[in-house]
Input
Amino acid sequence: MESLSNKRKVIESKPLNFWERIYLPAIAKGMTITLKHFLFKKDVTVRYPEQKREFSENFRGMHSLKRDENGKERCTACGLCALSCPAEAITMIAAERQPGEENLYREEKYAAVYEINMLRCIFCGLCEEACPKEAIYLDGDIVPADYLRKDFIYGKDKLVEAPLNQ
Amino acid sequence: METTEIIVRLVLIVVIFLISLVVAMYSTYAERKLAAFFQDRVGPNRAGPFGILQPLADGAKMFLKEEIIPTNSSKFLFIVGPSLAIMTACIGSAVIPWGEQLQIGGKLYDLQVTDINVGLLYIFGVVSLGVYGVMIGGWASNNKYSLLGAIRAASQNISYEIAMGLSIIALLMVTNTLSLKEIAEQQHGWHWNVLYQPLGFILFIVCSFAETNRSPFDLPECETELVGGYHTEYSSMKLGFYLFAEYINMFISSAVMVTLYWGSYNYPGMDWVAAHLGSVAAPLIGTVVVFAKIFVFIFFFMWVRWTIPRFRYDQLMDLGWKGLIPIAIANIIITGLWITFVK
Output
């Protein structure tokens, strides 16, 4: 039948000629290629724990809970991050700021407990987008490996930014 | 035989045995490292500087792994298999000359365990025994994959032994002796046999790839078809023995190739060295030369492995029976004509 698309190609399988049949020229050719890699090509491996590849600017890593310019925690425990989280990785317990704690928390309400389950988190960044107080950013490093599931639930001790040192 | 002679021989045996084990151990490391370099990777680099303790770590791991013997296997043969494989791999080194005679205190010491006048035939015998380890292990596993792997190994070895033997016949027509010591002595300076038997050497090296079950002829352990091949059911150090036997085989067959074709301990300018450095240093340099050549061949084995894909089984048989054997016979005829009319 005639081809309508004009794309049809007739492929014929030619019998191998003598040099192809004894394989050796082809083998020699292949071996020069591998030898070139052996001698001249540099390996591209990044030796990870010692050497780190630079992240792109919008890389999303471990979360950090931010402080404002006076060193007060920005988070007000509104729960919008938890609500926006598609993986349901975030949970928190809110508490009221007591008199005398004004230098610790910016608003009257704060998160007494703030936990992110790093095994559930998919690092989508929706919590970052949802936050009205600019309190959470995924600007950290890669979340390190661990042995137990419970150790992947990160509390405020690991998430809150280090306090300002004047 | 004198007592000292016997002691010297025993020491030599132990030393060669240890050297083969160390070389085999570090061949595993070299294989992984070279594979990495051929593929633009780094290779093992965690255990010790540049990963040089990796073989020890691998060995420790092998010893500590759980030993599994399948319920329906033939237990005795299951254990005999790997033992036989490693034993036949080791005894091949007995007839290989590792250097010239050492002259210490007016006495001559051979750097060869024994010089039997049928050394070459002995090597052949050992090589063909090697397949028994694979066969017995594969059969005793009571596993279809193992059995198929073992059958493949057996038929492959038989097919390629013929071509190997024929290529050796042409070499024997040139050397007129079966003793490896005499063959080594004949290749003084640069009169290496490979210059007189280039085709024979190519045949021999192809066959030794097949005999040692190395890629591109590693069909007995073809993962894509046979899971693990003949050692599917093996674990722990028994598996280690099989893998080790492969590397020792590679070492020994490199040594055989060096002895037969690449001038053993001979190198251009050796007379000058012998005249200037005395009767102890010069033979030792010869030994270094032997090992350097062997390492080049081991490198070549690995280089080929990380370049060429595996043959299909029918291609393998085609190459063996329709390719190598006719060429080997032609090589014998050419050598015969050359000896009659030219030499």
Remarks:
- The first strand of chain B starts at residue 102 and ends at 104.
- The CA atoms of residues 173 and 336 of chain B lie 7 Å apart.
- Chain B has a mean pLDDT of 85.
